[in-house]
Design goal:
Blueprint lengths: L17 E7 L44 H19 L3 H8 L2 H6 L2 H9 L3 H4 L2 E10 L2 E10 L2 E12 L2 E11 L8 H19 L3 H6 L4 H6 L2 H10 L2 H4 L2 E10 L2 E10 L2 E12 L2 E9 L3 H26 L3 H6 L4 H6 L2 H10 L1 H4 L1 E12 L2 E10 L3 E11 L2 E8 L11 E8 L14 E3 L4 E11 L4 E8 L4 E2 L3 E4 L4 E10 L8 E9 L4 E9 L3
Parallel strand pairs: 15-22
Antiparallel strand pairs: 1-20, 2-3, 3-4, 4-5, 6-7, 7-8, 8-9, 10-11, 11-12, 12-13, 14-16, 16-20, 17-18, 17-19, 17-21, 21-22
Helix pairs in contact: 1-2
């Protein structure tokens, strides 16, 4: 229900007694605005961790019911057969027989061989076992563990149906016995060295960036002039706007760490190699990686995000609020904000209501999330808005819109869920949830779960009977304390019982959160 039914004088049969009860609760883990998001594809990582070696888009799933136990066992057997061929060094046979068309398109036999050389466990494993498996965009993702003695390497397999059997779409080594993770005690000084060198580079102090951090081997192989030339060829080292230091791995006496430099939404991955000299970590090697594909994906994402924002602005200009709401906002947005509330938001923001143009002035993409700063202009004014977007249903959709003065953070109360039922425990909580009731039920209880509730905030509920376009006047309660709460509304039936039909309960908080719950009443005979 996205619009309230027309209000009408309350008929006698809907006059009931409403009791209100507040019960404090603790909610440990909830996600604000997002949580149900689609996996787009495995992300590229780096050697030796997180590196799928085929990155084509999957074909439509067909010919195989991937959920049946029989076909899951067929898939497991395909992985066993593939690994046994690798153990026996039959790489070409493995490649030709067990990899998919998309895999072969994305990864040559030579690349596949190079990948396998990095991980001796493919030949040396003594046992294997399977872990969790789940569907991701038509692919079957499987955890595979290769054991050597009491230790294991962890692999990710993505399998796809092809020609009536299972083929490999991608392989990723998540954890390798040959490349153990760098412990926290070492990561701290390594990260500090990276931060200090990047700071020197950003300040154009190339002498410090070289002489203070280069190892003896680095200085022997790369002169200061050579280093200056390298930095000059890649200005991202001095012009980056932000960076991220990822986890690293050990390779004998070297420590390998991936750093991602960012500028204007573009990402530039850099591999650092360190060696310990006299109890200090020194740079043994630096390599900037080819980021063409990643930045191409970012450019494609930004193009789609721009189309989403501009498309929504165009719909608003054309006064097509329904299109602006349903075509461009996410499922979670629509769960949290009704169409009417969205229309009121637009009405209260004349720059959006009468927009003439929109311009992206800042962007931050993180896998399936995007935080976009947009300058929206009208004939009379301009204003900065912040868009949060998520990738949902094969397109970017709006999760929230806010100004600097109105951040959409977890500081606002949120109606997490509502639970309906006729039986409650001693605390008033529903014990047998239902959305279908009978005409002879006496009381119908709604437990309304509210996150981040604020003291003195009001919560209201309005009961509607759809067939008669009638309703009970809103009943509200004022919260007495901050924190997560359950507000219980108990609707008592009229003397002659509940009328049959469809009912809606519209709930609202004074801070703007809204949610509608539906239930049915059928004859009790």
């Amino acid at each position: 229900m996205n619009q309230n039914p027309p209000q009408k004088k309350i008929p006698f049969f809907l006059k009931g007694i409403v009791f209100i009860q507040i019960v404090g609760i603790s909610v440990l883990l909830y996600l604000l605005y997002w949580g149900k998001n689609e996996t787009r594809r495995p992300e590229l990582g780096w050697i030796p961790t997180h590196q799928p070696i085929a990155i084509a888009e999957p074909e439509n799933t067909k010919n195989i019911d991937s959920t049946s136990q029989k076909n899951l066992e067929q898939m497991f057997q395909s992985i066993r057969n593939q690994l046994n061929l690798l153990k026996n060094k039959k790489i070409e046979e493995n490649y030709n027989q067990y990899t998919s068309k998309e895999f072969k398109t994305a990864t040559s036999l030579e690349q596949f061989e190079q990948f396998l050389k990095q991980y001796p466990e493919f030949e040396e494993f003594q046992n294997l076992r399977f872990g969790d498996t789940n569907l991701e965009n038509g692919l079957r993702h499987v955890k595979v563990y290769l054991g050597i003695g009491k230790e294991e390497s962890t692999l990710d397999y993505w399998m796809t149906p092809e020609d009536g059997t299972w083929k490999i779409w991608g392989i990723q080594v998540e954890k390798s016995l040959n490349y153990p993770t760098i412990p926290a005690s070492e990561m701290e000084p390594l990260s500090q060295a990276i931060k200090e060198q990047l700071s020197a580079l950003h300040d154009q102090d190339l002498s410090k960036a070289y002489y203070a951090f280069a190892s003896k081997d680095f200085e022997k192989s790369t002169s200061f002039d050579g280093f200056k030339s390298f930095i000059g060829d890649y200005p991202i080292f001095t012009e980056y706007q932000s960076y991220q230091i990822l986890d690293g791995v050990k390779e004998n006496n070297l420590r390998l760490i991936r750093v991602v430099l960012e500028k204007e939404g573009q990402k530039y991955p850099v591999n650092y190699q360190f060696i310990n000299e006299k109890n200090r970590w020194k740079i043994w090697g630096m390599q900037i990686l080819d980021n063409t594909e990643e930045n191409t994906q970012t450019s494609e994402d930004m193009k789609e995000i721009k189309e989403t924002i501009q498309g929504q602005m165009e719909a608003i200009r054309n006064q097509d609020i329904s299109k602006a709401y349903y075509a461009f906002t996410s499922h979670d947005f629509q769960e949290e904000t009704s169409r009417d509330s969205f229309a009121k938001f637009i009405e209260m923001n004349p720059v959006i209501a009468k927009n003439t143009s929109s311009e992206i002035v800042n962007q931050n993409l993180d896998e399936n999330r995007a935080d976009i700063t947009v300058k929206i202009s009208s004939n009379k004014n301009s204003k900065i808005y912040h868009y949060l977007l998520t990738y949902e249903g094969n397109r970017w959709r709006v999760v929230s819109i806010h100004t600097d003065a109105e951040p959409p953070s977890s500081q606002h109360s949120i109606i997490e869920k509502g639970v309906l039922g006729t039986e409650v425990d001693l605390q008033g909580k529903v014990v047998q949830p239902s959305q279908s009731f009978t005409t002879d039920n006496k009381n119908i209880t709604l437990n309304l779960y509210i996150k981040n509730a604020k003291k003195s905030e009001t919560v209201s509920a309005t009961l509607y009977h759809v067939e008669s376009n009638s309703h009970i006047e809103p009943v509200s309660v004022t919260l007495s304390e901050d924190g997560d709460s359950v507000v219980s509304f108990v609707f008592s039936s009229p003397a002659q019982g509940w009328p049959e039909g469809t009912y809606h309960i519209d709930t609202k908080t004074s801070s703007g959160a809204e949610k509608t719950f539906e239930f049915q009443v059928k004859s009790g005979k």
